[in-house]
Amino acid sequence: MPESERAKLLRSLSSTIFCQALLDELDDSDSQSADLDEAQDMYCEVKLNRYLGSRSNVARSGAHRHLVFDLRDDEFKKSLRVTKPMFESVWQLIRGDVRFAQRGTKPQRDVAVQLAIALEWFGACGNGNSNWNLVRHYGVGAGTVTAYVSRVRQALLQHYGRYVKWPSDIHRAVSSAFHRERYGLPGVIGMVDGTHVCFDQKPHIDGALHYNRKCRYSLNVQVVCNEDKRILMIYTGWPGSCADSTVFAKSPVLQQTSKHFKADQVLLGDSGYTVSKHVITPYKKPAALRPDNAAFNDVHCSTRVIVENTIGLWKNRGMSLKGIRTQVRKKRLCCRQ
């Protein structure tokens, strides 16, 4: 976030006070002491006022905030990207989170409203992802929208491991049996594919490394799912210039194969991945031209397309993933399984 004019002025006054105090140590004169007092008074005045100039009210309405929960089911889903029962489930999941507890004299707005604002923000991309759209609809401030989105995101992440997790031995055996009977591919427990979460602006740190083959700045995200389109693992944190095979090779799934696979269990990946004991890819030309290999590739493709559909569903629900408008300015540990 860019530095405000108030922050710049405070930083400048702080430097001035330091220099004046240093001069006073060298030469104790009344004129310099007066300058120091003036700078200190000005610093205190700015510090006590949150805004430098007078503020003007922005025309807004809170009507949508009161009407959104009375929308028809189809309208509700178009607006918040989830059904009403699903919204109720998520609300019940996070409503008791400490982030929504009252910390001052003024109580927080209803958790349901905060969740609705966050879901609309997650489900929009481009200009629709602007805070000002939500400001007009919900009658809240732009900074309030950011605060609500941050609270909801952090509250949801507390339950990440409960819903996105590697399958147990029993679930892997069920997946293996399904693929053997349905496609004739024994040992398959899931599919892996990579996708890019793009930034609308070049990151300030290592921006060139995030430039991908589609001429956009992004993070490479590895996704593993099963036959039910249930996401089993998400691994990210690598810049968009990295190949899928490179990123996935560094993931916990391949770094700790004994924990995630039995001897005969594998994942299906596209030709961008390296063939290994636990990753099966289609044949490449000229071997793919042989009839038996071509038949295998057809079965492989019809099975692996499930992960592409899963990523498509995920991004269509959370459309903000198609273009994140946040400016990346800091290095932060973000690799997550």
From TrEMBL:
Subcellular location(s) of the protein: Cytoplasm; Nucleus
GO MF term list: hydrolase activity; metal ion binding; nuclease activity
Keywords: Cytoplasm, Hydrolase, Metal-binding, Nuclease, Nucleus
InterPro entries to which the protein is assigned, alphabetical: HARBI1-like, HARBI1_animal, HARBI1_dom
Pfam families reported in the protein's UniProt record: DDE_Tnp_4
Cellular component terms (Gene Ontology): cytoplasm; nucleus
Domain of life: Eukaryota
Domain annotation DDE Tnp4: ranges: 192-321
Cofactor: a divalent metal cation
Function of the protein: Transposase-derived protein that may have nuclease activity. Does not have transposase activity.
Membership in a protein family: Belongs to the HARBI1 family.
Record-given protein name: Putative nuclease HARBI1
Species of provenance: Phytophthora rubi
